[in-house]
Specification:
Blueprint: E1 3-5, E2 12-14, E3 16-19, E4 25-26, E5 29-33, H1 35-47, E6 52-54, H2 59-62, H3 64-71, E7 81-86, H4 95-108, E8 113-121, H5 123-131, H6 134-143, E9 147-154, H7 158-166, E10 173-177, H8 188-197, E11 201-205, H9 220-227, H10 235-244, E12 251-254, H11 259-270, H12 279-294, H13 315-328, H14 331-341, H15 356-360, H16 367-378
Parallel strand pairs: 3-6, 3-12, 6-7, 7-8, 8-9, 9-10, 10-11, 11-12
Antiparallel strand pairs: 1-2, 4-5
Helix pairs in contact: 1-11, 3-4, 7-8, 9-12, 13-14, 13-16
């Protein structure tokens, strides 16, 4: 295992961290973790040098923390730094801080947490935390030894990330979504460098984009790119080595679902290093990014000339969800995003076919037709 500097701490993290969000389950039910297999996987990783385990309040229908508490028995708790996250969207008042922390300590069956993250931070939750003065509370609880370091995970646009990083002097770590596709998404590469420049450790989540850029074999246009290289790497190796190539990255989290994934990622991590990728390698990654982009059928650039829609339809967001489904064959995730994340009044079936959007679209997209097709393929059937 390779180890890397972790922000301001006199401690080095394993290049690979184990994320307990995509553990193997029984009968397709995310709330039923296959505990014998998942236990073997996590302990195999720790025995092989992984020293960072990450979970959160909602994972696996709120069963992940309980399971992690059990898997870290028998001396494994002492071998790792443990991270979990406060459910930001459920915090309504100051009393919730202690309520969730106490519940999570009990679920994990530990007396302290190493890294306590404010989960899925965005503009709304950031304002709420400031209004409730989470920092005074956190410093008291850290002084009491209930957790060692305050950190945050992030899902919003870069300006919000910058505000959060600069809004508190004692962050230890930021957790961001980052991979060779998402270099300009959310915090992106700019946020990675900002956090590192401020002395924070940066933990990368979704280095494989939820497995969507690690499929083997990859889509033909992407496969053609990788075949041009002399590297005998799988798509997952390309994605992980690209992340680890960057000195600002402290650790890459992987939510592994099979023992095979654990074993493959351990080998890849053991071969990781900053500056490993050559200029030719970087060009291969750039071409792969373009190849994935070419798989998106709607040539929407997210310029938002079509907004505001008179009927309130979130045209660019819908096209992005649909393109994601087609390009990465991620229909399950995209249907979830369309039906659960997008408010009903923003969905494509609200289009009245007035044509105002098509008149101003610089890409000359047949917006009305594509909205109808996107809705047809993304909407959940009514039982």
């Amino acid at each position: 295992m390779q180890y890397r500097k972790f922000g301001p701490l006199d401690w080095k993290a394993s290049a690979l961290g184990f994320g307990a969000m995509r553990l193997p389950v029984l009968d397709g039910d995310s709330g039923k973790i296959d505990e014998p297999l998942a236990t073997a996987m996590i302990r195999k990783a720790i025995d092989s040098g992984v020293n960072y385990v990450d979970t959160a309040y909602p994972y696996h229908q709120e069963q992940s923390e309980r399971f992690v508490g059990r898997v870290l028995k028998d001396g494994y708790r002492e071998k790792v730094r443990l991270a979990t996250k406060m459910p930001s969207w459920l915090v309504k008042e100051q009393a919730d801080f202690d309520r969730f922390l106490e519940e999570q300590l009990k679920r994990l069956d530990v007396d302290h947490i190493d890294f306590y993250l404010l989960h899925a931070m965005n503009a709304k939750s950031w304002q709420n935390y400031r209004d409730l003065d989470v920092f005074s509370w956190a410093e008291k609880r850290m002084a009491e030894g209930l957790f060692n370091h305050l950190a945050f995970s992030f899902h919003d646009d870069y300006p919000v990330f910058e505000s959060i990083v600069n809004g508190y002097d004692n962050w230890t770590m930021a957790q961001i979504q980052y991979n060779f596709i998402d270099i300009n998404y959310q915090a992106g590469q700019k946020g990675l460098k900002l956090a590192a420049d401020r002395g924070l450790a940066v933990v990368v989540m979704e280095p494989l984009r939820g497995g969507r850029i690690a499929k083997n074999p990859p889509p033909p246009p992407v496969a053609e790119v990788w075949q041009k290289s002399d590297r005998d790497w799988t798509p997952a190796e390309w994605a992980l080595q690209w992340v680890w190539d960057q000195p600002e990255v402290s650790l890459a989290l992987s939510g592994m679902s099979t023992m095979e994934q654990v074993e493959e990622n351990l080998v890849t991590a053991s071969q990781s290093e900053v500056g490993k990728l050559t200029q030719e390698d970087q060009e291969m990654v750039r071409l792969a990014r373009e190849a994935f982009s070419s798989l998106a059928p709607i040539p929407c650039t997210q310029c938002e000339y079509c907004l505001p829609c008179p009927s309130g339809v979130a045209i660019p967001s819908i096209f992005n969800i649909y393109n994601e489904a087609e390009a990465y064959d991620s229909w399950s995730h995209s249907r979830w995003a369309y039906n659960k994340q997008l408010k009903p009044e923003l969905r494509a079936d609200n289009c009245i076919e007035c044509g105002e959007c098509e008149a101003v679209c610089p890409q000359n997209i047949r917006i009305i037709d594509w909205l109808a097709k996107a809705h047809e393929k993304l909407v959940e059937p009514v039982n």
